[in-house]
Amino acid sequence: MLEKTFEPQAAEPRLYAQWEESGLFAPRAAKPTDGAADAYSIVIPPPNVTGSLHIGHALNNTLQDILARYHRMKGKAVLWLPGTDHAGIATQMVVERQLAAAGNISRRDMGRDAFIEKVWEWKAESGGTIVRQLRRLGSSCDWSRERFTLDEGLNAAVRKVFVKLHQDGLIYRDKRLVNWDPHFQTAISDLEVEQRDQDGHYWHFAYPLADGVTYEHPVAFDEDGKATEFETRGFIVVATTRPETMLGDTGVAVHPEDERYKGLVGKAVILPITGRRIPIVADDYADPTKGSGAVKITPAHDFNDFGVGKRAGLAALNVMDAFARITNEDVPEIPADLVGLDRFAARKAIVARAEEENWLREIEKTKHVVPHGDRSGVVIEPWLTDQWYVDAHTLAQPALKAVEDGATVFEPKSYEKIYFEWLRNIEPWCISRQLWWGHRIPAWYGPNGEIYVAETEEDAREQALADYDSEVVLTQDEDVLDTWFSSALWPFSTMGWPEKTEDLERFYPTSDLVTAADIIFFWVARMMMMGLHFMDGEVPFKRVIINGLVRDEKGQKMSKSKGNVIDPLGIIDELGADPLRFTMAILSGTRDIKLSKQRIEGYRNFGTKLWNAARFSQMNEAKRVEGFDPATVEQTINRWIRGELTKAERQVSDAIEGGRFDDAAGALYRFVWNVFCDWYLELAKPVFNGADEAAKAETRAMTAWTIDQTLKLLHPVMPYITEELWAELGKEGPARESLLIGAEWPVLPDSFVDVSAEAEIGWLVDLVGEIRALRAEMNVPPSAKPPLAFVAPDAVTAERIARHRDLLLTLGRVSEIATAEAAPAGAVTFVSGGTTAALSLAGIIDLTAERARLEKEIAVFESDIGHVNKKLGNPNFVSRAAPEVVDEQRAKLAEAEEGKAKLQAALARLDAMAGA
Are 646 and 753 a contacting pair, CB within 8 Å? Predict the structure, then answer.
C-alpha cells in the first residue's frame, strides 16, 4: 500500500540516481530503419559556470525537459546536450575577488599563466554548482556529453572558425567605438550594459563663433510660432550631460532645415579651453525641437556622434585613457591641470572654468538614462579603440533568408519581428575583450606590426617566414574573444565539429531551441549566422521556442532589492520539483509570467490529488491485470473514461508537439482532477461496492490501466511523483518492463472514443454539475437534501434517470427523484440535456433572507464595477499606469460583471420560485 503522502525530499535524489544509472538519458542505439524523423536533439542554452539556478533557468529547463522526455517516450533517439559557458567577465571577477579576500596578490602581479591556472582550480572546485542544481530540477540531459565552452574540443573549433572567417575577409581589425568598462578595462557587449535612470544635469555652453561671425537669433515668437524678435549673437549654445567630453569635440551639428542656423553651416566655432577651431555641419541627427537645436559632436566618445563624424568627415579624438582619465595624447592643447584627472573630477573642473570664463549659460536639471557595467557597476564610457570585428552584415543575409523561407520558425511567430529588425540593422560585431579568461585570439604580431592569424603559433611562424629571412619573435594578441563568439558555435561545436562525428551526422541540425527573448539577437541570431556559414547552409535548429519572463504575482520584475525573488531551490527543498515544474509549464503561455508561491502550492495539491487517487484505487483492489485489453470493456463508465483518456492524449501530444506547454499542462490538469478523480472514481464507487463481480473486476482493471496511461502522459511534466507511483503500483500485477522514463507513450486508437458512452456520462456529469451550481447560487445548506423532479422527460432521459438514480441521489445530494407533468410549487427550475428539471427549495431556504443576501452581493459588484469603470474611463490612468496595472483592472471588471450576472440569474430564479 502506498504511503499516505509522497515525500519528494527523500524520493527525488533516489529516483534521479536511478535515471542516471539506467543510461536512458543518452540517445538510444541507432536502428537500421532510423530516418531523420527518428532523432530528436536539443542543446541547452549554456548557463554561466559561475551561476546558480534562478527561476528563469527553472522555466527554460523545465520546458526543454518536457520535450526531451516526451520524444524519448515516443521512441525517438533523444539527445539533450548540456554544458556551461566560461562567462569571461563574471568568472574573472569571482576569482579576482577570492584572491583579494585571501590577501593574495592581484592578477596583474601574479601574471597571466598563474592567474589562468587559479581560474581552472576554481572551476574544478566550484564550477559545477549549477549543473548539480539542474539535476535537482529533474533535467534528463545526457551528462556523458557535457561540454564547456573552454574545453579543448571547443577551443579547436573556435580557432578554426576565427581563422576561416579571417581568411574570408569576415573578421578584421578596426578602430571603432565600444562600450568600455573602465573598472575591468575591457570592451563589453550591449547585453552586459545596464541602463539606469539617474538624476543629472544639462550644462548649456556658449561656443564662440570664429572669425568674428555673428547671426540673428530669434528670442520671441507670435501665436503661430513665427519669430518676432531677434538678438545678435557671436556664439552658438550647445548642451551636454558629460562636459568632460567637450575636450574631444570636433564639430557642432545643426539640422539642415533649421532656419536659425542655415547661414552658419560651413562656419566654425572656437572650442573653449583647447582653443581648437571646429566646423559647424548640417546633419539630420540634430533635432531643432530639442534644446537650442545645436549639438556638440564628440566622435570618439558618443555612438551617435561617431556616426555624425563619419558622415561629416570629422576627426575622432580620444581624450580619455583605459581608466577613463583625461589624456592629451590626441589633443595636446588640453591643459596640464586636467591631464590625469578622473572623468568626473574633470567634469567639475570644466564646469567651474566655464562659469568663471562666462561661457556657462545655464544648468538644467534632468533625469536621464546612464549606462553601467552590469558586473562592475561603474558608468560605461563609449571609447574609441582598436578591436577585432566580425562582418555581421554579410553573415546576416543567409540567416535572414532562412527564417523568411521557413527553414527555421519561431514560436510564437511574433518574435520573428525582433529577429528581423536586429539582423536588418546589424552593426559590425566587436568580438575582442581585454580579459585573460577566455579564448585567446589566435593572432600573432611580428616585430614590424604584421598580423598573422593562424590556428597555432607554429602555423603563424610559417606565415612570418614569408616576410622575414629568419625566425623572428612573434607576440600573441593579449585579448580574448567575446563569450558570445564561442556560444555562437554551440549547436555544432558541442557535437564534435570540425571533425565529422556520428553525433553531427545523426543529430544536426537540432530540432528545437528553447530560450528567452532577450538573447534572440545576442545568441540565436549569431548561432544562425555561424551555423549556416560553417555547416553547408544548414540551419542549426528547425524551431526556436521563446519562453516568457517570470515576474512576481503583481507583474513586477523580480529583484533582490524589491525582496520579491522566488528561489527555485528553496521551492524544491520545501515542496519538491514537480509542483514547480507543473507551475512553470501551465503558466508558460504568456510573455510575462506572474508567479507566486501560492500558485506553486496549489499545484502541489494537484500532485497530492493524483497520489490519493492511486491510494483509493489500491484500497479498492484496482490492480494491473495481465493481458487486460481496454478495447473489450463493457461498462458505460469504463468505455467513457477510455474515450476521455484518448482525447486527453491527443490534446497533450498536440500541445507538446506545438510547443504549447501551457495547453499540455491544462489538458493534464483537467483530465486528472476534473475527469478521472472528480467523476470516474466517484462513478466507480458504487461498482466497487456492488455485488456485480464481473463489473467490479472490469472496473478495477480499467482503473489500474487508466492510472498507468495517466502516469505516462504526466511524466514529462511531473517526472518524480509519476516515476514513484509507477514503481509502487508496479509491485502488484505483471512485472514492469522498464522505468517510467523509458516507457512507451500511450498509443490509443480513435475507436477508443465511444459516442454513446460519452453522451450518457456527459448527460450525468452536466446534470450533477447544474444541481451543484444551483445549490451554491441559492445558498442551500450542505446538509439539506431537496427533492428533484424531471418535467415530462423523453424516453431516453427516463431510461437514464432509472439507470443512474442512485448516483444522482448521492452526487446531487437530493432526497428523492420523480417525474412530473409540471414543476412543483416552490421549486427552482433549470434545463439540462434538453430536459427541464426542478429542485424543490420551499422550506429549505428563507426566500426573504436569500433575496436580501443576493441584492446585497449584487450591490457590492455594482459598486466594484462603477469604481473600475471610473478608472478605466480616465484617459490619464490608462495612458500613464503600467500596462499590467491596466490589465489587472480590466480583469477585475470582467470578474465583477460575471459575478453580478450569476447573482442576477439566481435572483430571477428566486422571483420565479416565489411567483409559483
Answer: yes
Rounded Cα gap, residues 195 and 322, in angstroms? 21
Tell me which H or E stretch contains 861. helix 847-872
Q: How many helices (H) and strands (E) does the chain have?
A: 30, 31
Please, what's the largest Cα pairwise distance for the chain?
116
Burial 170-201 (b: 16+ CB within 10 A, else e): bbeeeebbbbbbbebebbbbeebeeeeeeeeb
List the one residue out of 641, 586, 609 whose CA is nearest residue 725. Answer: 609
351 CB neighbour count, 10 Å cutoff: 17
Residue position matching grid coordinates 564628440? 298
Long-range contact set of residues 595-604: C-beta below 8 Å, sequence gap at least 24: 595/55, 595/550, 595/551, 595/552, 595/553, 595/566, 596/552, 596/553, 596/566, 597/566, 597/571, 598/553, 599/553, 600/571, 600/575, 601/575, 603/579, 604/575, 604/576, 604/578, 604/579
- The predicted-structure confidence for 507-531, as pLDDT tens digits, reads as follows 999 999 999 998 998 899 999 999 9
Q: Are 553 and 544 in contact (CB under 8 A)?
A: no
Q: Is the pLDDT of residue 158 over 80?
A: yes
pLDDT digit string, tens, across residues 733-763 = 999 999 999 999 999 999 999 999 999 999 9
Instruction: Give the span between the Cα atoms of 532 and 509, in whole angstroms.
Output: 10
CA distances in angstroms from 382 to 22, 178, 186, 307, 385, listed in the order given: 54, 6, 11, 13, 10
- 777 versus 57: the higher-pLDDT residue is 57
Residue 202 DSSP label:
E
Q: Which of 430-434, 747-751, 774-778 has the lowest mean pLDDT?
A: 774-778
Q: Give the helix, strand, coil percentages of the chain, each rounded to 5.
A: 50, 20, 35
pLDDT tens digits, one per residue of 366-390: 999 999 998 889 999 999 999 999 9
Position 916 scores a pLDDT of 52
pTM of this structure:
0.86
pLDDT digits (tens, 9 = 90+) for 631-659: 999 999 999 999 999 999 999 999 999 99
Convert the pLDDT of each residue in 258-279 to its tens digit.
999 999 999 999 999 999 999 9
Q: Tell me phi and psi for residue 543, to 5 degrees.
A: -145, 140
Cell of 222: 507670435
Pairing type for strands 432-433 and 480-481 reads antiparallel
Grid coordinates belonging to 133: 542544481
Tell me the C-alpha to C-alpha distance, in Å, between residue 319 and each of 201, 204, 233, 298. Answer: 21, 20, 30, 10
**Pairwise CA distance, residues 497 & 254, whole Å:** 53
Task: Report how far residue 170's alpha carbon sits from residue 394's, in angstroms, rounded to the nearest whole number.
Answer: 8
Give CA–CA dist 202/243, Å, rounded.
9
